[in-house]
Amino acid sequence: xxxxxxxxxxENFTSKVTSYFSSLSSAVGLGNIWMFPVLTGLFGGAxxxxxxxxxxxxxxxxxxxxxxxxxxxxRTNAIDAFRVLGKPYLKITGFLGLxxxxxxxxxxxxxxxxxxxxxxxxxxxxxxxxxxLSMTKANAASQEIFNxxxxxxxxxxxxxxxxxxxxxxxxxxxxxxxxxRLSKILMPVLFVLLVICAVKGLTQPGASExxxxxxxxxxxxxxxxxxxxxxxxxxxKLSAGSGTQTTYGSYFTDNTNLVKNAIQVCISDIVVSxxxxxxxxxxxxxxxxxxxxxxxxxxxxxxLIFSKIPMGGLFMFLFFLLTGIAATxxxxxxVEPVVAYLSNKKSLTRNTAILATTLLIALVGFFTxxxxxxxxxxxxxxxxxxxxxFFNNVSTNYLLPIAGILFSITTGWLMDSVTFHDEITNGGIxxxxxxxxxxxxIRYLTPILILIVFLNSVGILK
Length: 462
Ligand code: PHE
Fold this sequence. Notes:
Distance between the termini: 45 Å
Shape: globular
Number of strands: 0
Bound molecules: phenylalanine
Structural class: mainly alpha
């Protein structure tokens, strides 16, 4: 008979469309607009993208679907879900996801702060001078603006606090009102703006070089760290393995087609990432910037594009505003599982849980936000990296994929197949073949692939 469906008093999303947009609003964020171009630049372009798409399809989507299944079946948070499923020992999966969310928030909130700064600067004409400068000088000026934003003592921290306050306020207003309404309106607008930026990018002199960089793979550039990073990015991008898709899945309607939803989210997400790449890389190649320039890539190139087009100031403001909103919505999805878990524990009200979580992020964030300063460095177990890189690396490349293995093992092997079948086919209505293929992928391909990548990255498997 399988595990009973759970019904509860909690708010649910009201339609299939909202299930798509809410899940998408978690997926689309700084991962597309900031991290994807940065990593694509660092790891050599098309071969990295190809690898990323491969992992998105074979690990990201299956784990996302597993999370949806677990969330919708149990209608609770990513930790208690395992208790409801009768597998309390697997709560560790949810905990790994939650720690992943927190680690991500520790660095994500600081990048979101930079975006907020750029919203303010483009609104107050902070980039006006760029338009009258020669390209070389404009480029230098743009880099200086970025350095100024990230290197101050007070400013980065205040910006991070601002971001966190916005997140807390939206969450206090409630799941439905906050997330549902925002995501449906803003996602399409962000998409249109990215299309404008990409079209602008494609008219730059460096466009053909950029297209080659983005779409003509050179497989010889692949090595174990490229592969590990591409897999990590697939998890990070799709918010898979973090428990956020479990939490959102728990609000889905019973008639949402989980497989279709995951595929649609993944395709939209890849399209948004590619658009960001099309906007940024032509500028990089036109002005002989270094594609490997790291976290500043987005912030140095976008002002250059907009400084040279009519009404560029307005467009730039809109671009950063929407990026800021996308980042904020992704953060809502990162905080939500932590809050949902804490507030299901009797001792904490939802609002106290929200405040406690944001306070913790601000406390740890104080260390990650100060780029290049002595407080932002970690010398642990022979590591010598910034807190920023540490949290980024551990959460993206390890915590999410490890939780991902456990999510897929749960749905593929441990959950009874009647329940799994019921969720995938919506009680037998949907296509049986899709179920059969998916079951094979989730049981074998996904966990084995993740394992191989790990073994390869530590040199056990060459
Ligand atoms: N997917 C989000 C982005 O691309 C980040 C994220 C990761 C959100 C994990 C939730 C969980 O920006």
